[in-house]
Structure formats: C-alpha cells, structure tokens
Structures
1.
Amino acid sequence: MLRLNLSDGDSVRLSNNTGEFIATCKSKKIKDLPTGLIFIAYGPSSSRLMESDTGGSGMPISKNLRVQVEKVAA
Amino acid sequence: MSENIKIVKNATCTFCGCVCDDMELTVDLDKKQIIKAKNACVLGRAWFAEHTIQEGPVALIDGKESKLEDAIEEAAQTLTKAKFPITYGLSDTTCEAQRQAVAITDFIRGTIDTTTSVCHGPSGLAFQGVGESTMTLGEVKNRADFVMYWGGNPAESHPRHFTRYSVTPKGMFTPNGKKDRTVVLVDVRRTASTPVADIFLQVKPGKDFELAWAMRALVKGHTVDASIEEETGISLEVLTDLVERMKNCNYGVLFMGMGLTMTRGRHFNSGAIMALATDLNEFTHFVAKPVRGHGNVTGADNVVSWQTGYPFGVNFSKGYPRFNPGEFTTVDTLSRGDADAALIIASDPAANFPQAAINHLHKIPVVSFDTKETATSQLAHVAFRTSTYGINTGGTAYRMDDVPITLRPAFESPFPSDEEILTALKKRVHELVIAKSRSQGAGTAKVAAPIR
C-alpha cells in the first residue's frame, strides 16, 4: 500500500483479463500479509476475477490470482 | 421466552464438515427458534440462530408464488425436456435427499456434480491417483502427537477442529492435550490459526507442491539444495528439522485445506501431501485427510460414489455413469454453455462461480432448492423453499472423516424437506421418462423398473 500510496479506506480497482471490481483497502503488517499479496474473501467479488478454465480438473483457480491494482476515487 | 421450551441433547450442527454431534439445543417451540446452542462454536451459534422460520411461499415459478404440485410438475417438465440437464450442489442436505437427486439425474440422463468439484475435488483426484493413508478424527484425538495443517485456517473456518479433535483435547495417548502435540501450520499468510501453531511455515504463494516434494525427498534421504529457500520461502534447515520431527513422532496427521486445491497445482498439491504421508509410514504412523467445508459435502461424495461408482462430475447421457472432471464438472458444463437446464440443490453457484458460469446460469432454466433466498434462487425458473437439515429434518450427514452421523431435528418447519420434494420430483420425472420412451416405441422392458 505504501508503494501505491494507498491508505486504509481508499478504494481500488482490482482487475485482470477476466473482470474487475472495486474494493476498499485495509492494511496488514508485512509479516502477516507479505508484500504483493492481497487477501479477499471468496464470494461474488472474487468470482469476477476467476477464470472459468479448470485445466481438466473441474476446479477454477480461485486463489493466487494475478491482478492489477489501481486507486480510484471513492 | 415462552414456557414451551424443549431441550434437544446430542443434536448435530451441520454448518461445517466437523458435524459436531454434541450440541445441546434449547428450543422455543412457540417461536420456532433455537435460543441457545450449548457447545456450539461461533459459526454454529450463528447457524442455529439464523435458521428461524421465515414467512414465504414454498415455491416460485418465474418469481410468482406457486402451489407445490404445480412447481414440481414444472420442474419435472423442465428437466425432462432438456438435452443436457445438470444437477449440482448437494453439500448442505441429507444423504437421503442426495440419493433422490442421483436417481433423478440417472432418469433424465443428465450430469451430476457436487460442490466437491470446487472444494476438495482435486484431493479426490489425487486420492484416486496415489491413494490415501487415512483415519477418523477419533484416532487423531486419541493418538496424534504431530498435527500439521496445510493451506487452511481452521480457527475461523472450523473453530472446533482444534478443540474437539486435533490440538487441545486430551486423548488416550495424548493425556496432556496440546502439551503432547507438535502443531505445524503452512500458509501463505498469517491467520487467526497461526498463534496455535508451534511451527509456522510461510510458504510462497503457488509453491506448495515444491515444498511438499522437497519434504518427500528429505524423508527418503535424498539431498535437497539450499536454493529451496529461494524457491519456497522455507530454509533447508527448517525443513530438515521439520522432517526429523515428522519421522520421529508416534502418530502424525496432515490436514489439507483448500489453499492446496484452489491454487496452482490443484490435485498435484494434494497428491504430494498424500504421498508424503504414505512415505512417512516407512518410519512411523502417518495419515492425511482433507478438511471439508460444508456440513454434508463428505456425504455427497459417499452417496454419489456408492450410487454411481464415482464421487462427482458424473454423466449419464449414455445410460451408464461416466466420470470425467473438466468435462462433466459444473464450472465446465456452464462456462462452455453445454448445460441447457440445471437442478441446483442446497448451494449457491450464482454467488461464487466464475463469472462466465454465472452468466450461463442466467440463460437457462434453473430449478433451485434452498432454505433461504439466494443469488441462485433469485434467477431460478422454479425455486423451492425447503426446511433446514439437522434443524427441522432428520437424516444422515457424513463428518469430514467419512463417519455417518444421524441428525436430531429441533423443531418442525412448515416447509417440506429436500428429500420430500425430490422424491415427488423423481416420481414425476420417472413417469414422464416412461411416457416419452413409450411414445418413441419402446416396450416396457426398455424402461426402468418401477421406483420405490
């Protein structure tokens, strides 16, 4: 968040090739959530970023998704 | 509080895969509400408190109130007219209801899949590939002195897993509870579970397979390069110490979370953990088990397996069951646009599937079963409101260690159970299938035997 000049409560657009949604930032200590990682709960928001390709397994990749982070006006 | 109070002892919480069967429920029968759930965790208390009786129609057709019989007829017509109908969900209902859903799918030559495919389906594939050294949670409680959670956060997802089975309970060979155990947690981030662990390994995201494979190499006595730290985030020194502890424990257990199955590697990750447990049996007793989410997702695996031979992703279009994850699993059948009707039971794919799958659900007729309004019931052509298993209806649910548990309901609901509606739907579907078969010139020998 420091690198992107973000503060608690800021709105960011999380996007990838599949979709996007707007989230609200909440900081964590680096030892708890390493640099470069974002945690969001599984549900309607994360669905927008999940590709439907299951690689022949039935399971879409639902964690470790690569996303772009962009600050947006609240 | 009214004076019409009932106490239900040894009731079962069906919120998560722990299926804790030591609940003592205090029920206000006048208000039809559970007012106290002794022994329940925070999730269980919310589960019992929130499942009250809400006014509403038992069935909707295109959002309009319908008689139950009319909705069953419409659902049966919808499913039998479809060319590629799918059945999905089943993890929050009884085994008895699951059995009816399998029969319906068989009659309509459809495809049946459960929430397992987006849960521990990859672990199921790994199980078929490498086998599983397994156990019951009772064994863990009484014997395990080394407990490792990989890719999960049970403190928040399964709060009583620690206290009832694996970390703090005093067992036959673990009389001092947590003092007799070494608890290890592997995750990409610190969670509420981390403070419980004696050893925390913060693995780099997507490097679970590499870490597990390095541990397998160390167990087998091979040399592992120090660059493993750069690759996985865990030093060779820490790994070597950990593997020695695992080899020298009396009874070790590896619990697998969805941090393994939902990320890069999927079934290879689960397979590596299962193989690691098997490797360790050269030195001591070691087991591995997935930590299952929904209350009866394990039952869904068991019922679909004993009815079809396969646990999920089963297709009946040729008249016999075929298993092919990636082809017959629901994310795939929806995202590719194969399915032309869907029977969704006790799950909410419209809320948590990939967007492409959700988009297709909006295009096809959906028949939904749920205790409450959900994103899926809102888009359904036919939506049934049913009673809650374990609270309003009895039956059987499987704990995550494949132990079946009989449910003791607390109070009656005005809504029918999933099993009751599915049984009626099965009967009508069967009639329509027979009529269609005969209209196409089939004799009685070609149609299914009368159903019970």
2.
Amino acid sequence: MTDLSHLKADFPVLSNGVHFLDSGASSQKPISVLEAMDDFARTSYANVHRGAYKLSVAATDAYEAARERVASFIGASDSGEVIFTRGATTALNMVAFGWGLEHLGPGDRILTTEIEHHANLVPWQMVAKRTGATLDHVPMTDDFRLDLGAYDEKLGPDVRVVAVTGMSNVLGVMPPIRSISDRAHEIGARVVVDAAQLVPHSPVAVATLGADFVAFSSHKMLGPTGIGVLWGRMEALEEMEPFEGGGEMISDVTLQDATWAAIPHRFEAGTPPIIEAVGLHAAIDYLDSIGMEKVLEHDRELTGIALDRLGDVPGLNIQGPTTLEDRGGVISMTLDGVHAHDLATILDEEGVAVRSGHHCAKPLMRRLGVAATARASFYVYNTEEDVDALVGGLRRAGDLFGVGG
Amino acid sequence: MSLEDLYREVILDHYRSPRNKGHLDSPDFRAEGVNPLCGDEITIDLAFDGDQVSQVAISGQGCSISQSSASMMSEAIKGKTKGEIEDLTKRFRDMMSLDGEADIGLDPDRPGAVLGDLESLQGVRKYPVRIKCASLGWNVLLEALDGEPLT
C-alpha cells in the first residue's frame, strides 16, 4: 500500500476530520500553496508584462516561471505552448470557438463521445450550430469503455476534430488517447482532450500523449480556482484565432484593426490570474514532491479497496468498471431504492462528502439509465479510513431506507 | 436533529408508494417542473368539479423528499378550491421557512393535527439545501393552477 497518510496534515480544511471524497469536483489546497500565494501577494505583486518598475518585473518573472513549471510538469518542450486560461472549461471553449469557427463548415463532422463532461460537448454543439458542421458521438460499451471499434468506423475524411475526455469524471475510465490520436491524425483531424481529471491524477507527457490540445484546471490539482491551462501543439495553436480581444494580446492596434501578439500572449487577453499562477506553481511542486506515478498508484489502490468493500453493500451498483486497468480514482454509484441526493445527505451526516447529481454529464446519465449517481473521488490526502466511512455511511443509508431488508 | 427525524417513516412510505401516481386522461390543468441543479422532475395533472379539485395525478422522478412531498400534497389538495390550495401552500411554505415564517402553530402533542402527513417534512428545514426538494411539487402546483385551462 502506498501510504500517503502523512500528507493529510498539510491540508487545513481536513483538520476537522471530514472524509472529503469530492476531489473530482475540486481539490483541497495544501498549506504550501496558500503560503506561496500569500507571500507573493504581500511581497511581489503587480500587473505583469506592463510596468518598467521592479515589482512588475518580479511579478512577470513569477508568472512566467509558473508557465515554465507547467511546461516541465506536462512534458511540453516549449513553454510557449502553455496558455493560461480561467480553467479547463474556458480552455475547451477557446479551442471550440478559436479553432472551430475558423476550420469547420457544412459537410464537416465533429466527433465527441457519449461519456463527455458538458464542457467538452456543449461548446462543440454551439460551434456546430454556427458553422453548419454536424456532431457525432463515439458510444460507450456495456462495460463502460469507449467503443473503439465504433470510433474506427465513425472516423472518415469529413471528421475534422475529435473531442475526447482523458479520464471520465463519472466512470473513472481513461481512454487510450495515444491510439485515438494516432487514428485521428491519419485522416487529418485535430484531437482535443479534456484532461481536467487526467492531469491531476496521472503522469502526463504531452509530447507522447498524441493530442493536439490538452485542457485542465488548477483547482482540481491542489491549486487555486480561477486558473487553468490550454496546452496546444504549436502548429495547432497557429491555426487558432484569439477567442478574446483586449489588452496584452495585441502587437499593434489602430482604430480599425489590430494585429496579434506572439503565442502564447495572443491568447491571454486582459490581466491574467497572476496570484493564481503562483499558486498553481506551488501545487505542481507539491505534486512532484510526491511523484505523479505514486499519486496514480495511491488513487488506484484506494479505488481497489473501495470497489472490493462496496461490493458487499446490499443493493449497491457501481456505475463504471469494477476492474482497475485504465481507471482512475472516481467511483459513481447508485443504491437501489435510495436516490443519490438522499445518499449524499446521509453520508454528509456521517462526515463523508460526496457529490450527487448528474455530474455535468447528462447524456451519459441517460446512457447509464439513471437520473443521478453519488460519486466518491480520491486524491492524495485520502486514506483507507475515508473508504471505510463511505462504506459505513452507505450501509446506514440502506438500513434507513430498508434496502434489502 | 437526526437522520431519523429527516427521513421519517411516513416520508419513506410516500416515497416507496407514491399516492395518486400517473396521469389523468383529460386534465383541466397540467404543469411540469424540473430542478435543473439536481434533475428532479414533477408533472401535475388536475381536474376540477365545479370549483373543487376532483382528481389529481403526479408523475416524476427524484429524491425521497421531492417525491414524498408531492405525494402528500396530492392527498391534501383533493376536494379543495383554488383559494384553499393557495392558503395551504402558504402554510406549507411557512413551515419550511421559505418566506421567513417558521411557526405555524404546529402542536407537538398532536402531530398531524394542522397539516396532516405534511408535518413530517418539517425536519427538512434543518437541511437548507434540501428545502428546494420539498418545495418543487408545490411550485409546480401553483404553476398548474395559474396556467391556461386545457379544456
């Protein structure tokens, strides 16, 4: 067992004993992240890329150091390929609108999947309506995996872009991005990966991942809210128009026209999330001090323990694979006769925080044939005791509602 | 406040065996509502005989609180006029503290004397995020009553 239980003390929110199993929605922040942001705001804060004075230079250095840190963390050879955004959702919208509006039209097909989060689905619906392109979806198999045979069949010369999750926020499955990308590239399509769940929980090297665009959020990886990342292969970024205009992103402006700054600044209009970039830098330092291989191993071990013990709870159904291969630490479940919201309330009374609802994946809920699920998601600070509290709470819910009795 | 106070047996009974479930063949009023945050759905059909509700049918899906509240509501409004239903709705909302009131004169020694089974839902008040579950059916009911007659 990968014992990371000593880490819990680094997270002030957890000191009251809450069994926090909702990191898939947003993670807690270690002291080092809070202190890095506090220290920066107290000593070095100013706007970036603007001032000739020392504070602004210091702030710019810190902001650009964060970009370098992100690049090294995800194995990007060029930090210019790292664009800071407000979060994964904004990053995905930047691609859908900035790339999609330029390159899609009638007769073109956008291929997404049945297991996407709304953030990698709804922007493409919006862009399809505006461009006349059509939307198509890779279905899920009955064992909760992407149907790769159907994917091959759906790939055709009219498919211009493939939008796929790196790890499902409902099922926990991790689709094989490398082979999905390779096949898409054979027909000249771009590949956009929603990595909001993948990057926080697994080693990722964009150089070998295969995708053209990768989006993720800081707040799910121990960092602050308000900042995320769009990584793009430089040749793909060059195909993209800015999604927002404003300060910072221009080269020259007249009353009638403007030319764009170089990449990545072209895509960072306005004052960026500067303090948050410093926080994200510290969060990456924290994760790297553990090691992402170990983070993945830890999540997976807890998932294995949980799947094993949940199997004994009467009336419980796992909405996702019960094997650990290509799977992260997210477990969605339903309990016969007990609605997910009731489950979440009962678990809360037991000190267990889980998410209940449709998880911003309503098409997937329909495919699963459920209105809602309760979801437990694990991260570095979770322990076997958290799993036991979850299992105990589920048993209590079953007792209260008379499941199986 | 314990979970047993929230999930009283009468609530679970209405959840497992919802009263007046289904649709009416020719309702005078119909409205449907959904809580977009959690996805709970309720559709209400009403038929009137004169100025009184003669038949009511409820369909939908959701948590025990939303579905039991609608089930109890369907029993409570039969035979009532629109004015009486609006008055009942106000008292229910007051019990839930939705409009700032909480004391509607419930008698702990005589449970059910004022609002019948609906009194069992007063425990929901202690769980603020769940109050919207209990009130969903009532919001749909008012929408149905204020809508255009279907016949």
